Amino acid sequence: MPAADALARVTIPADLLPRDGRFGSGPSLVRPEQVEALAAVGRTVLGTSHRQAAVRDVVARVRSGLATLFDLPDGYEVVLGNGGSTAFWDVATLCLVERRAAHAQFGEFGAKFAAATTRAPFLEPSHVVSAPAGEVAVPAFVDGADTYAWPHNETSTGVIAPVRRVPGSRESGALVVVDGTSSAGGTTLDVAQTDVYYFAPQKSFASDGGLWLALASPAAVERAARVEASGRWVPEFLSFTTAVTNSRAEQTLNTPAVATLVLLAEQVEWMLAHGGLAWAAARTAESSGHLYAWAESRDWATPFVADPALRSPVVGTVDLAPEIDAPTVTAVLRRHGVVDIEPYRKLGRNQLRVGMYPAVDPQDVRALTACVDHVVAQLV
User: Fold this and answer.
1) The whole model's pTM is what?
2) What are the residue boundaries of the Aminotransferase class V domain, all occurrences included (predicted)?
3) Sheet holding 315-320, edge to edge
């Protein structure tokens, strides 16, 4: 790594910089228009009761908007609750898995859900299939499994997996539960291939954390009601059935972060106004297509995910050659206001990780790669 004084002399011309330098994989870029909308409605909803019409109307905007955005099948509903996806892993463990879960893990977040069901003393040992970081695994049929679970997109590594029912799962009455936290809103899918597609709002939906949302089938709602009535101890805060009841009343069990709801509602409506999920997916595909093509055209950069079909359109990971120190590159960029492209901390690679959610302008991704080129040229 260059000496500190030499590093300080590495500069990026202003005309190369992106208009917005936020490329975080979550929390992600929040559009200025969302913040302006929050300020505009602040006097009527911030600091007011979440049981009253003003806040419940915001929840209704979120639920209606998401139902339209994802073209929900008949009978599916939008359920939301306090806490993020981490809380939902406990909700699902307690309320959706009846006896045994089958998981696929190929990164940090799929592994965490698998660990939750594996540790649960009231469940049979989970069946877990794994793939190395940068590759993908999907569960196959497992006799006795009543719930199949995997991430749609692995935020830690930048791979995307298929969303489809496990062959034989419908006939056996099993649920398919897919973590869409970093993919929801930035990729297309057929929600009917799942029973629960769940996510948090701090990625494609450009909001803050502290909330989980789930697109739930009638079978999932019925499963939770049956499991929770079976005598299994379920804390009210982690009850899926309680969340369903409150969601139908356009509220959450406990006081939600109202600012999060407003930012989320604004982002969903922005997506719908521009053409919905197909438009958002095309936008992320444009950004990611440029990033991967750029990496492949440099002799010192390589897409971390080898198979192009598995490369995420919303979170791109690019390995740098050993002689190009990624922490130095990201430090120079951060000094110029281009932030949060460091790799996932536990992956431990000499790597850049770029969030390319719908709020990120594809032209800014092009500017980012031009900045990286400029910095590398000064460092080598």
Assistant:
1) 0.96
2) 150-338
3) 301-303, 315-320, 351-355
